[in-house]
Amino acid sequence: MVAKLLDGKKLAMEIRTHLKQRVQELKQKGVTPKLVVILVGNDSASRIYVRNKHRAAQKIGIETKDIELPQEITENELLAYVKKYNEDDSVHGILVQLPLPAQINAEKITHAIAPAKDVDGFHPVNIGHLFMNDPHALPCTPHGIMQFFKKYNISLMGKHAVIVGRSNIVGRPMAAMMLNNDATVTITHSKTKNLSELTRQADILIAAIGQAEFIKKTDVKPGAVVIDVGMNRNDKGKLVGDVDQKEVAEVASYLTPVPGGVGPMTIAMLMEQTVKFAERGVQNVDGEVSNG
Ligand SMILES: Nc1nc2c(c(=O)[nH]1)N[C@@H](CN(C=O)c1ccc(C(=O)N[C@@H](CCC(=O)O)C(=O)O)cc1)CN2
Ligand SMILES: [Mg+2]
C-alpha cells in the first residue's frame, strides 16, 4: 500500500476561498472581522507563524492588529493588553502566540482572554464546552485535523483513534473532538507502557509527541490513517514530523505530510473561528432588532 497524502495546503486554500465570501457578506452588513495577535519576545518560529497568520487574514479580508511586546515584559503588563482588547467591541478575536517567556505563566494569560474572543479555544470554559460536546470555540490544530476527515470522508464512527501526546493544545482537545464524533479514543503519552502495542491497534493514529520521526512502520496497523502533528528539526536542520514519513507511507492508507499537512490547517481554522465570532456578533444584533 502507498498512502494517499492529505494535502493541508490545498485544503486550507479551499477553506480560505469560502471564508473570503463570508467576510464579504459581513462587510455588507457593516462588520469587518478583527483579530488581535500578541507576540511576546524573540522566538523566530513564532515570528514566522504570526506573520503567516497576518498574511492569511489579509487575503481573506480580516483586519489584524499585530502587537509585538518585548521579551522582558511582566505578566501584569501583558494582562493589561489582554484586558484592553477584551473590552474593545471592535475586536472579535484575541490570541497570544505561544510559547511565552519563562517569567510569564501562559495559563494565566490564556485564561484571561474573554471566552467569547478566544479564537485559539484554549480557555477552560471553551475546553469544558468542547468536552461536553457543546463546542463554542475549538483549538485550531485538532479542529484543522477534523477537516481532513470531513474532506476525505473518513468516518470516525466506532473507529479506534489512538493519540500519542496529551498537550492542552493538541492531544486533549483532539480526544474530545474524536469522541464527539463517535470514535473510541485512547490517549497515550511519555509514561505509557507498551506504546507500540497500542499504536498498532489504531485505525486512526495521531502523532503529537514532538520527537522527530518517532513513529515507525512497525508502530502502524496496515491501512491506518496517520496524522502527523510534529514539527521538529532533524540533525541536518530539515523540518520533519513525528512520523517517519518514508516508512509509514508504505503501510498507511492516508498520511499528512510535513510540511504542508496539519500546519496550514491550523492557520485556516484560526481564520474560520475569527469569522465565526464576527458572525455571532451580527446574529446578536439581528436578534435584538427582530425581537425589538
Ligand atoms: N496561540 C497559539 N500558539 C501556538 C499555536 C496555536 O495554535 N496558537 N500553534 C503552534 C504554532 N502555530 C500557530 O500558532 C503554527 C505552527 C506551524 C504552522 C505551519 O504552517 N507549519 C508549516 C511548516 C513551517 C516551517 O517550515 O517551519 C507546515 O506544517 O507546513 C502553522 C501554525 C504553537 N503555538
Ligand atoms: Mg504539516
From TrEMBL:
Keyword presence, NADP: yes
BP GO annotations: L-histidine biosynthetic process; methionine biosynthetic process; purine nucleotide biosynthetic process; tetrahydrofolate interconversion
Domain Tetrahydrofolate dehydrogenase/cyclohydrolase catalytic: 6-120
Positions bound to NADP(+): 165-167
Pathway(s) of this molecule: One-carbon metabolism; tetrahydrofolate interconversion
Cellular component GO terms, alphabetical: cytosol
Keywords: Amino-acid biosynthesis, Histidine biosynthesis, Hydrolase, Methionine biosynthesis, Multifunctional enzyme, NADP, One-carbon metabolism, Oxidoreductase, Purine biosynthesis
This protein's name: Bifunctional protein FolD
HAMAP family on file: THF_DHG_CYH
Its job: Catalyzes the oxidation of 5,10-methylenetetrahydrofolate to 5,10-methenyltetrahydrofolate and then the hydrolysis of 5,10-methenyltetrahydrofolate to 10-formyltetrahydrofolate.
Originating species: Liquorilactobacillus capillatus DSM 19910
Reaction it catalyzes: (6R)-5,10-methylene-5,6,7,8-tetrahydrofolate + NADP(+) = (6R)-5,10-methenyltetrahydrofolate + NADPH; (6R)-5,10-methenyltetrahydrofolate + H2O = (6R)-10-formyltetrahydrofolate + H(+)
Gene3D superfamilies per record: Leucine Dehydrogenase, chain A, domain 1 (3.40.50.10860), NAD(P)-binding Rossmann-like Domain (3.40.50.720)
Record text on subunit structure and interactions: Homodimer.
E.C. code: 1.5.1.5, 3.5.4.9
Limits of the Tetrahydrofolate dehydrogenase/cyclohydrolase NAD(P)-binding domain: 139-280
CDD domains: NAD_bind_m-THF_DH_Cyclohyd
